């Protein structure tokens, strides 16, 4: 899963990114990498992994990972190449979801004035500025794609027909200053064409309200405005104080717990952000467990067993025979796979089985 972090200048975007990646680096027994200066990989908090390890002895735990891209260059006019517009658009087209950081504090800790690029703090204006740039970028994409698609359609090219149908469906929506996700597309071929266009505004957006350190739960009016907007567009908002998260990321576990208690927080807000991103993308986890490792695997909700097996290795999908599975809850209750089998709760499922969240699986295949 890959998410792009976007935001206007001076909203705390890079502070949040640095806090996330630092937290990943300090997570005990979890792999972490900074791939490039603006790309990091962090583990997703998952208590099921420890539940499984308490019952199944294993050398290591491998959690599901969130790849984060700190996307620079988003200013008004980015769609026309202002700032680092071209680099920004290239990065954002590759991510699965957009995490938009919105400033919801007036002054920095200690009363320091941090100048807003537009002269005042208005999170809804900021949201609309970024959305407008993404819509303009998508409009430019479809306008550039139309001539080629129209030429290719004459040769009865199936992909071109799908692309042109998608262009015809989405261009009026973009011209009305609405995101491409608002286009009503029911035809499967047109939906396929939408996927080929690579439009930015089809991607889900999760809002992060960067709040002041005296409003860690986002109860102030600025965050409330973002929450209302998110609800109106079917999205979610996570209040985060990037400064606090940055400090937490540098502490050991005991000091971190003490600071959380002092701030009236039950866990780092970054954990909530990771879970919200997972949920908003329609994802779930299944697990494999053995003496070498216990690992979480990420799949889309509704994925069938052979495709889930394919996330481990393509040969598993190609030669899929069946899957033996049980729930983490069953393991926690009964204590072992042997007891699960004796209780008749070890399920044997075939190719049409739709994976359930928190399945623990043994895949059988033959190639």
What does this 3D model show about the protein?
With 367 residues, this protein is an alpha/beta fold. It has 14 helices and 13 strands. It has helices spanning 13-26, 47-55, 85-92, 123-153, 158-175, 188-197, 221-232, 242-248, 253-263, 269-280, 305-312, 314-318, 328-334, 337-342, and strands at residues 2-6, 33-36, 39-43, 60-62, 65-70, 97-104, 205-211, 236-240, 283-289, 293-300, 320-327, 347-349, 359-365. The chain has a seven-stranded mixed beta sheet, sandwiched between helices. The chain has a six-stranded mixed beta sheet with strand order 4-10-9-13-11-12, with helices on both faces. Helix 1 runs parallel beside helix 8 (242-248), helix 4 packs antiparallel against helix 5 (158-175) and helix 5 packs across helix 6. The longest helix has 31 residues, at 123-153. The chain is flat, with a radius of gyration of 23 Å. The two termini are 28 Å apart.
List the helices and strands and how they pair.
Elements: E1 2-6, H1 13-26, E2 33-36, E3 39-43, H2 47-55, E4 60-62, E5 65-70, H3 85-92, E6 97-104, H4 123-153, H5 158-175, H6 188-197, E7 205-211, H7 221-232, E8 236-240, H8 242-248, H9 253-263, H10 269-280, E9 283-289, E10 293-300, H11 305-312, H12 314-318, E11 320-327, H13 328-334, H14 337-342, E12 347-349, E13 359-365
Parallel strand pairs: 1-5, 1-6, 4-10, 6-7, 7-8, 9-13
Antiparallel strand pairs: 2-3, 3-5, 9-10, 11-12, 11-13
């Amino acid at each position: 899963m890959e998410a792009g972090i976007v935001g206007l200048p001076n909203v705390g975007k890079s502070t949040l990114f640095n806090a996330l990646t630092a937290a990943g680096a300090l997570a005990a027994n979890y792999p972490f990498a900074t791939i490039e200066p603006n790309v990091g990989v962090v583990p997703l908090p998952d208590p099921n992994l420890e539940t499984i390890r308490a019952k199944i002895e294993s050398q290591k735990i491998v959690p599901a990972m969130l790849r984060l891209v700190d996307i620079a260059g988003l200013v008004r006019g980015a769609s026309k190449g202002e700032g680092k517009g071209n680099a920004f658009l290239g990065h954002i087209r590759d991510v699965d979801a957009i995490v938009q950081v919105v400033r919801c504090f007036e002054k920095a800790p200690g009363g320091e004035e941090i100048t807003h690029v537009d002269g005042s703090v208005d999170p809804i204006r900021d949201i609309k500025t970024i959305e407008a740039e993404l819509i303009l970028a998508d409009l430019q994409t479809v306008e550039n794609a139309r001539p080629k698609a129209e030429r290719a359609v004459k040769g009865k090219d199936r992909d071109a027909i799908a692309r042109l149908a998608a262009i015809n469906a989405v261009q009026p929506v973009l011209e009305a200053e609405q995101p491409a996700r608002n286009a009503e597309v029911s035809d499967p071929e047109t939906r396929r064409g939408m996927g080929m266009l690579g439009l930015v505004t089809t991607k889900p957006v999760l809002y992060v309200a960067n709040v002041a350190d005296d409003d860690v739960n986002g109860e102030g009016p600025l965050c409330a405005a973002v929450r209302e907007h998110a609800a109106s567009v079917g999205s979610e908002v996570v209040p985060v104080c990037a400064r606090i998260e940055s400090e937490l990321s540098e502490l050991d576990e005991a000091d971190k717990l003490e600071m959380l208690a002092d701030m009236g927080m039950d866990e780092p807000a970054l954990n909530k952000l990771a879970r919200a991103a997972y949920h908003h993308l329609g994802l779930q986890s299944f697990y494999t467990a053995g003496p070498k490792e216990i690992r979480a695997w990420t799949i889309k909700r509704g994925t069938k067993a052979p495709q889930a097996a394919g996330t481990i290795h393509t040969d598993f999908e190609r030669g899929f025979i069946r899957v033996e599975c049980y729930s983490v809850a069953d393991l926690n209750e009964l204590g072992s796979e042997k007891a699960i089998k004796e209780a008749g709760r070890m399920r044997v499922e075939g190719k049409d089985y739709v994976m359930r969240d928190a399945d623990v699986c043994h895949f059988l295949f033959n190639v």
